[in-house]
Input
Amino acid sequence: MSTINYSEKIPNNVNLGEDRTLQRALEGWQPNFINWWDDVGPEGSTNHEVYLRTAVSVDPQGWAQFGHVKMRDYRWGIFLNPGDANREIHFGDHKGEKAWQDVPGEHRANLRRIIVTQGDTEPASVEQQRHLGLTAPSMYDLRNLFQINVEEGRHLWAMVYLLHKHFGRDGREEAEALLQRTSGDVDNPRILGAFNEKTPDWLAFFMFTYFTDRDGKFQLAALAESAFDPLARTTKFMLTEEAHHMFVGESGVSRVLARTAQVMNELKTDDAQKVRAAGAIDLGTIQRYLNFHYSVTIDLFGADQSSNAAIFYSSGLKGRYEEGKRTDDHVLKGQTYKVLEVKDGQLVEKDVPMLNALNEVLRDDFIKDSVAGVGRWNKVLEKAGIPTRLTVPHKAFNRQIGALAGIKMSPEGRVVNEVEWAAKKNEWLPSAEDFAFVASLMGRVVEPGKFAGWISPPVMGINRQPVDFEYVRFG
Amino acid sequence: MDMAVEAGIIKQHLIDPEICIRCNTCEATCPVNAITHDDNNYVVRADVCNGCMACISPCPTGSIDNWRTMPLVRAYSIEEQLTWESLPAELSPEELEAAGVSAEAAGDAAADVPAQTQAQAAVDSVEPVFNSAQYGATVPPWSAAHAYTNLFPPKSPTTATVVGNFNCTEAGFDSETHHIVLDFGVVPFPVLEGQSIGIVPPGVDAIGKRHHARQYSVASPRNGERPGYNNVSLTVKRVTEDHQGQPVRGLCSNYVCDLKVGDTVQVVGPFGSSFLMPNHPRSHIVMICTGTGSAPMRAMTEWRRRLRKSGKFEGGKLMLFFGARTQQELPYFGPLQSLPKDFIDINLAFSRTPGQPKRYVQDLMRERAADLAALLKDGASHFYVCGLKSMEEGVVLALRDVAKEAGLDWDTVGAALKREGRLHLETY
Output
């Protein structure tokens, strides 16, 4: 390395070098980002060289470059999918008009809020996962954790770029604030509840990456429809990276199930205590973790009736999932959608204006996708000849946001009283004892090709490397 | 290929529903819209997929990389694939035979190199995208000296004094490259050839934050620009335009090029622990560089020259491939010319000499294929690449082709070079 043109330190496909003011502003933000990474990023990993995927451009050849990189030297870049100069707004009141390259004044506050809320989730998950490196069940899993961490960092960059480029001083201040809030901090927490929850162990991490990163997929997909073209193009590219995060969750839980099923078959038992004694995680605990992460995640979609959601849609800021593939009028006025409420101790459906129910529409899209994945987990049990099946709890279970907030409900969707809730809570949600048990399994296994006793090896390695490849070199 | 088409065989692209997580990346990536999905599965349209492989590397699961030899008339339909819970097994030779496909024709289909006709893509034999970076070593050669790093991290820089600053570009030429000498006095600052240091430009940026350090490779050998003194030299090009040719004034390069003897600068580092030269006396060094990428090459050459003078070397070869737009832009052109031919084998490539065809370092490497092949066969050879990012792929491809033409298996050679710390890539 002879001379570094510092503009290349922030790899980008947005001609950053041509906008000196923006470049300087981002170069000013960068050391604070690195400080944040050093302070609350992956613990004890400074000298590790990790087999990471690094994007150098958005084309298929450029964005999946693999090699060993020190995480702190990972090149967090700014990438937008290629634009289409003639792209039109395809939903809401501005339908048919040209997509915006700049922020229209009247939508400035709402767009900023959307971008800040999305941006706030990215560093939060790094913070939540900070300690997991110390208890990784294998070198392969450790690498996957770090891959997620660096990409969440890059997604933060993506949102910070939009704030700096399009929102002037306010944007720069919001970008600073993204590094000042901290997950779980009592005084200055992250914006959304799920991002202040702890991710105490690897089962929680897999559930988080399955459910909560899947929420990311739906939120990003809805933003990828936005009339604000830079946001649409940024989130499109983020979606390609988000896929790996969901993969870690889906395959992680699958591997836990495979190992549990194996132990159950070896011991010929479905007794949770015997499974636990053999060092595997019993299916009941897995179901309780699922119940918790699912219910916390569906809260992320917001209140079931929201005038903001209606405004965001009608003004073209945020579309629906796969908006372009839907065949309705893309304006949605005069249409209705069914949402749940509790009446006389019973759950009932009621029709509300579709535009106000768009959070619920997105939540239902997510639910459909999640349930299909739980079905794939059940295939693992089915193949192993285990009769138990995992299920997702009722949509109204354990909700903290919207009309269903605080209503005591069984996982099957039956309204229960306080007494029953108190009695059954530990059957439905992970108890302190469950957490303590799972925590007791969290030893560190990082020899290439070796795996902790509670999880099976993956079907194949990363980037077609062997499973026993040296994914992390410890400095 | 003709036979395969006549026999109506395709290599059908399929997605394994057991591994696929339905993340939608393949569908979003596919340039020809060959991939679609329903609530159950993601599937590939056999009549649209052209086997371009764009979907392969973005897939996080590997589920997308599945192919089945099929009689065209029996290709799995979209509707069929949407119902799958697992991938069907490959048809047996008997089943193919029964469908009117001979084993020979099936083999031809599998071996067919990019069958461009849609639905005839024999994808197994399409080469994956070449990724030069994967061959770069992250370990130093076994005989390298131990490198100290980060003695002065960015949070606590040290101070050096400028004791020399020469424009080593031909006078009157508008592109300037400077040779800067920095003295550390009594501050410990040990560096090895191939390492770099950071210079912190003074002042603050637009929002009042201190500037970051800019990194430069050391151009002097381990015992100093002036032997026995605690000093280092750098090769710095004055940046007046960006990579796209737009005018831009490089903050740090202009600061460094304008330094006067006696000025002090803030320095961080040293950095780098793998781009290091071998010490054992029969090791060969092949250096490939452009522009200021010559700095580490100069350092290594000069160290070898000093060793040779003291009689400590035993015939390890030095070979240099050096590229620039014109002769005037080559730093150290004069001194290079005066090195003895039996000491270093110099190959210069100029891409913008008026009236001459453009020549790049990789063109010269191909011309010297016979010598490079001999070096590739020798486990004592080390390859160093430093310069503009755009050269890296061409250089590694040239090495690969030289190896292949010499009957070497590049996968084996390339992997050994990487594993043994014998191929180092440093591009920017």
Residues 1-7, 109-127 of chain B have pLDDT under 50 and may be disordered. DSSP finds twelve helices and 15 strands in chain B. Chain B touches chain A through 63 residues (CB under 8 Å). The first helix of chain B runs from residue 2 to 7.
